[in-house]
């Protein structure tokens, strides 16, 4: 007997609920493996619409290139309906920056941030800070534990720059006012990465975001 067929037979014998859990774990790691998985046999393919799969499906390639989601509107719609953080983050970027519907975009980025998507947490914090919702922005940024180590925040920023590449990011007047209000006193060292107080940190992050540096 073909060993590959034997493996498929074992899968066919598993309960559909367990198959859904298996597909969800695969999809949460790698989108390409998820695609191959649901095509491998009809039992696994039947789990493609499982809410656990749709809620956790990894959209890493689309997070890097949000505008390319137009080629995947059906799966995006299903995942949005199941509160997939990546899907909300992608939609938020498109609505906020590309379509200039800031309130709608901020809403979706907020859902992604509340769902634990790290880049969305950073993005949401920056937008709140730039829109003069300072304390809310600081609270979200604290989830990245920047006071202990700024590595996570810096990594998120690099990934966000990749996501926003090719998308026009407007310098709104309220951003500039917020940046000016956040400027640290002269005795601080906003350019000194090894000597960062709270005000220096937020000022530096806002400056990078507003001027895309």
From TrEMBL:
Database matches in Pfam families: TPR_27 (PF23310)
InterPro entries per the UniProt record, alphabetical: At1g67623-like, At2g35280_TPR_dom
Residue intervals of the At2g35280-like TPR domain: 69-163
TM segment ranges: none
Name recorded for this polypeptide: At2g35280-like TPR domain-containing protein
Organism from which the protein derives: Arabidopsis thaliana
Top-level taxonomy: Eukaryota, Viridiplantae, Streptophyta, Embryophyta, Tracheophyta
């Amino acid at each position: 007997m073909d060993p590959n067929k034997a493996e498929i037979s074992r899968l066919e014998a598993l309960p559909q609920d367990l198959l859904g859990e298996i597909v969800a774990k695969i999809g949460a790691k790698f989108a390409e493996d998820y695609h191959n998985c649901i095509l491998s046999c009809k039992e696994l393919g039947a789990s493609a619409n499982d809410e656990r799969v749709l809620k956790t499906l990894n959209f890493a390639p689309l997070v890097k290139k949000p505008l390319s989601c137009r080629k995947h509107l059906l799966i995006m719609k299903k995942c949005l309906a199941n509160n997939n953080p990546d899907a909300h983050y992608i939609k938020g970027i498109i609505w906020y920056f590309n379509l200039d519907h800031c309130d709608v975009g901020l809403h979706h980025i907020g859902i992604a941030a509340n769902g634990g998507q790290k880049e969305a947490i950073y993005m949401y914090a920056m937008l709140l800070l730039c829109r003069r919702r300072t304390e809310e922005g600081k609270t979200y940024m604290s989830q990245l534990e920047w006071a202990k180590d700024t590595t996570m925040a810096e990594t998120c920023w690099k990934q966000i720059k990749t996501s926003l590449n090719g998308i026009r990011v407007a310098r709104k007047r309220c951003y500039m006012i917020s940046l000016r209000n956040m400027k640290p006193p002269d005795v601080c060292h906003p350019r000194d990465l090894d000597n960062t107080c709270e005000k220096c940190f937020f000022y530096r992050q806002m400056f990078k975001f507003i001027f895309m540096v």
